[in-house]
């Protein structure tokens, strides 16, 4: 089950993210605080050095369950024991692509937004170069009205695939919906210059030149 944690971004916005994304935000310094229910307080990552290091990452209460799931304790065993205890094929650890496909299905087929976020986060933990995982996790966060994290994920996807006009368009629409029209138009122009049709149509309807 996806565990959601309250966070405060550097721009003072508050929202919730999954526990895997929390670790990303701590390591990149994009949040100022997160709320730890077990202690009933907000943890300031700038001062709470015991719980966050650049080398090991955050491994507090919110991460423990996820990390334990990934650890596999292996005991010495003989041939017969290995044969009898052999795990079925479906129990093999999921790959980054497996997690991505699971998240995609959860988001676009079953509508389970929370679990989709967790699946995309798990995919990105194994392969942080997957722009589509960032894009789809951003869509999931946008459905949760977490505008800040949706923007962060769309921006990361654009960094990875700057020549993809669709990505600029999607981020532009997010900005437009929330009243940031100047920034939205910049994204729409970038998308239109990359010949993305929906962006061209958008700017044409608004009477905005892009070339």
Written description of the protein model:
With 211 residues, the protein is an alpha+beta fold. Strands 2-1-3-4 form a four-stranded antiparallel β-sheet. The chain is globular, with a radius of gyration of 20 Å.
Structural features:
alpha+beta; globular; single chain; 211 residues; four-stranded antiparallel sheet; 4 strands
H-E order: EEHEEHHHHHHHHH
Largest sheet: 4 strands, antiparallel
Shape summary: globular
Radius of gyration (CA) equals 20 Å
Q: Which class of secondary structure composition applies to the elements? A: alpha+beta
Beta-strand segment tally: 4
Which parts are unreliable, with pLDDT below 50 for 5 consecutive residues or more? 50-59
Arithmetic mean pLDDT:
84
Main sheet: strand order: 2-1-3-4
The residue fraction in helices comes out at 55-70%
How many helices? The count is: 10
Percentage of residues in strands: 5-15%
Terminal Cα separation, in Å?
A: 47 Å
Helix and strand arrangement:
Layout: E1 4-9, E2 14-18, H1 19-28, E3 31-36, E4 41-44, H2 61-70, H3 79-84, H4 96-110, H5 113-126, H6 131-143, H7 147-160, H8 165-177, H9 181-193, H10 197-206
Antiparallel strand pairs: 1-2, 1-3, 3-4
Helix pairs in contact: 4-5, 4-6, 5-6, 6-7, 7-8, 8-9, 9-10
In short:
With 211 residues, this protein is α+β, with helices and mostly antiparallel strands. The chain has 10 helices and 4 strands, in the order E-E-H-E-E-H-H-H-H-H-H-H-H-H.
């Amino acid at each position: 089950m996806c565990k959601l944690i309250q966070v405060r971004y550097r721009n003072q916005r508050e929202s919730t993210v999954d526990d895997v994304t929390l670790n990303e935000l701590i390591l990149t310094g994009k949040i100022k605080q997160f709320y730890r229910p077990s202690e009933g307080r907000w943890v300031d990552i700038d001062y709470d050095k015991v719980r966050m290091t650049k080398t090991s990452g955050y491994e507090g209460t919110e991460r423990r369950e996820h990390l334990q799931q990934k650890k596999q304790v292996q005991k010495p065993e003989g041939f017969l024991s290995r044969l009898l205890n052999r795990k079925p094929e479906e129990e093999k650890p999921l790959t980054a692509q497996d997690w991505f496909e699971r998240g995609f299905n959860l988001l676009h087929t079953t509508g389970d937004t929370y679990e989709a976020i967790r699946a995309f986060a798990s995919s990105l933990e194994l392969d942080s170069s997957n722009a589509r995982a960032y894009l789809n996790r951003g869509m999931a966060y946008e459905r949760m009205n977490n505008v800040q994290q949706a923007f962060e994920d769309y921006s990361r996807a654009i960094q990875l695939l700057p020549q993809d006009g669709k990505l600029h368009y999607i981020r532009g629409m997010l900005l437009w919906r929330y009243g940031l029209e100047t920034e939205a138009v910049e994204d729409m122009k970038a998308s239109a210059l990359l010949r993305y049709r929906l962006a061209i149509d958008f700017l044409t309807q608004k009477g905005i030149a892009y070339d």
